[in-house]
Amino acid sequence: MKKTSTRLADGRELIYYDSRDDAVRDAVDQRPLPRVTTASEIRHDRLLGDSVAVASHRQGRTYHPPADECPLCPSQAGRLSEIPAADYDVAVFENRFPSLAGGTGRCEVVCFTSDHHASFADLTEEQAALVLEAWTDRTAELTQLPDVEQVFCFENRGAEIGVTLGHPHGQIYAYPFVTPRTERMLASAEAHRERTGGRNLFDDVVADELADGSRVVLEGEHWVAFVPYAAHWPYEVHLYPRRRVPDLLALGEDARTEFPQLYLEVLRRFDRIFGAGEPPTPYIAAWHQAPVRAPHRADFALHLELFTIRRTPGKLKFLAGSESGMNVFINDVPPEAAAQRLREVASA
């Protein structure tokens, strides 16, 4: 992998990740961009104990542009984008409309490929491996920032999720606090450790799923994918390395090599859940990594959670009163049935 860091016209950082060592990335951003100004602030909710990012400047962000005006495609004559180069493998840049900025974290955009009409599932194993390298490198860099407590790599896919740019891409949020979901995992892990005399919760969850087997979707030598026992979403898969590590940086080479094979297969199965002729399945793919300075961070287990809000052809799972009002999920699809369906649509 070759990494090249440069700057956009307004001073934001842009990083190219190339599979070729001889790639030259010297294209200059020719756009007359003003310096980015943001109004992000973090407000603490005293009742719930969590934090809310207030970012009013995001109201003006790019919204569903036509394909020939996509800001994530490579720049061409007469059409300048966020990527000055005429092509690229993987590109990462500071978000022009960040939710977190200026001492309150950082937001980055990760472009998986220059092909506007592709999806992550269309990538080759080599391309997916390069994205994994980019996620890992950005995690390493962002954890060094003094105000960052947690790094979150994720992908939103599909208009139903709220995606406003159709180009295959994800994002990275570097939070200045530990997220509520991770706090709950850490608390559950600590309680389990005390209750069981030192056992690791994540290890036990994976072992229990493997022992039961009814919710296992796919197994490799170094990774396992399963629908969790208490899945919140209609179709939800958790992907764990068999050897527990706290973050992407700690993944071994064997696990890195195998990851693209299993992940691409799971994504391709997601697109086949609802049958032939159905539109691509909307989803969120979320990497869960240990917070930077959490006590017992080595006990946390890196894993990826993938889920869709589509529950059946043409119907979405909306977060209504119980889910949004009380955070009590009601799942319409039994996890065992979801796992069975994901096994049925395996690649030939």
Task: Describe the secondary-structure layout.
Elements: E1 2-7, E2 13-18, E3 41-44, E4 51-54, E5 90-94, E6 106-111, H1 125-142, E7 150-157, E8 169-175, H2 180-195, H3 201-212, E9 216-219, E10 223-226, E11 235-241, H4 253-270, E12 283-288, E13 303-308, E14 310-312, E15 315-316, H5 321-326, H6 335-344
Antiparallel strand pairs: 1-2, 2-5, 3-4, 5-6, 6-8, 7-8, 7-12, 9-10, 10-11, 11-13, 12-13, 14-15
Q: Would you mind describing this structure in some detail?
A:
With 348 residues, the chain is of the alpha+beta class. Helix content is 23%, strand content 22%. It has six helices and 15 strands. The chain has helices at residues 125-142, 180-195, 201-212, 253-270, 321-326, 335-344; strands at 2-7, 13-18, 41-44, 51-54, 90-94, 106-111, 150-157, 169-175, 216-219, 223-226, 235-241, 283-288, 303-308, 310-312, 315-316. It has an eleven-stranded antiparallel beta sheet, with helices on both faces. Strands 3-4 form a two-stranded antiparallel ribbon. The protein has a two-stranded antiparallel ribbon with strand order 14-15. Strand 14 and strand 15 form a beta hairpin. Helix 1 (125-142) crosses helix 4. The relative contact order is 0.12.
